[in-house]
Amino acid sequence: MKYRKKPVEIEAVQFTDDPDTLIKINDGLGLDPVNVSYEDPDNPVLKIPTLEGVMTAQVGDYIIKGVNGEFYPCKPDIFKETYEPSGLSVDGKLLAEKLAVPSEREVDKQARRE
User: Fold this and answer.
1) Judging by beta carbons within 10 Å of its beta carbon (0-12, 13-18, 19+), is residue 5 exposed, middle or buried?
2) Residues 6+ apart with CB under 8 A from 58
3) In the sheet where 35-37 sits, what is the strand order?
4) How confident is the model at residue 113 (pLDDT cuts 50, 70, 90)?
5) Do 82 and 72 touch, CB atoms closer than 8 A?
6) How far apart are CA 87 and CA 100, in angstroms?
7) Closest CA to 21 of 53, 54, 57, 52
8) CA distance 46 to 24
9) Which residues pair with 49 in a beta bridge?
10) How do 35-37 and 11-14 pair as beta strands?
């Protein structure tokens, strides 16, 4: 008998060793603590606690938050084969900045009132 994988929507961030990405992994995905090991300074790894034990992600791997809130790493080639974007992604900070700027219509209304 053949089986097909059910469509599942996940959240993921590609691991790079920079502060912005580590913040996305922590704040965006909710992985806390974010534990990067620099035992080999040229190859930092992210250590992810899982039910199966601690797994490591290398730079370029995707960190996936599963449907039940579990985290695990995924190699980029497997990620691209398995997943595709499900829609628009939203950057909360960028959205807040855009919402803080009044639209042309609001500016026109304000000008008419004055």
Assistant:
1) exposed
2) 15, 43, 45, 73
3) 35-37, 45-50, 53-58
4) low
5) no
6) 24
7) 57
8) 13
9) 54
10) unpaired
CB 54 within 8 A of CB 48: yes
Say if CB 96 and CB 112 are below 8 A apart.
no
- Domain boundaries along the sequence of the chain: 11-87
Other C-beta atoms closer than 10 Å to the C-beta of 2 total 3
Tell me the C-alpha to C-alpha distance, in Å, between residue 69 and each of 9, 32, 66, 100, 111. Answer: 12, 12, 5, 32, 49
Q: Yes or no: say if 71 and 57 are a contact pair by the CB < 8 Å rule.
A: no
Question: Which tokens in the block code for residue 4?
Answer: 């097909």
pLDDT digits (tens, 9 = 90+) for 12-68: 999 999 999 999 999 999 999 999 999 999 999 999 998 899 999 999 999 999 888
Taking the CA atoms of residue 39, residue 18, residue 57 and residue 74 in that order, the dihedral angle to the nearest 10 degrees is -170
Q: What is the pLDDT of residue 96?
A: 58
